[in-house]
Specification:
single chain; elongated; three-stranded parallel sheet; about 90 residues; two-stranded parallel sheet
Length: about 90
């Protein structure tokens, strides 16, 4: 009877090893961006950066408060400088 209870656990354990671990909440990307756009250096707003980006670009948002409505309508990476100090 103990063997029957242990079998599902043993079957599930290898799946945990296959899952990528991300302890600190950083986004792990397996592809390099085609271009890196900096906000506010390249564009004043996040939306301007998105509008001018091409699919595959990374939009790097410097620390600060950004009061805007953001619509992401293409495949881009949106990365903040710091999760505590980059506020949208």
């Amino acid at each position: 009877m103990k063997k029957l209870k242990l079998l599902p656990l043993l079957a599930f354990l290898p799946l945990l090893l296959l899952a990528p671990l991300n302890v600190n909440g950083d986004i792990i990307s397996r592809t390099e961006p085609s271009a890196i756009i900096h906000v506010p250096d390249d564009f004043a707003t996040i939306q301007e950066a998105i509008n001018n980006a091409t699919p595959g670009d990374m939009i790097f948002v410097s620390s600060g408060r950004y009061y805007e409505r953001v619509v992401i309508n293409k495949t881009v990476m949106l990365v903040g400088e710091n999760r505590e100090t980059t506020i949208v």
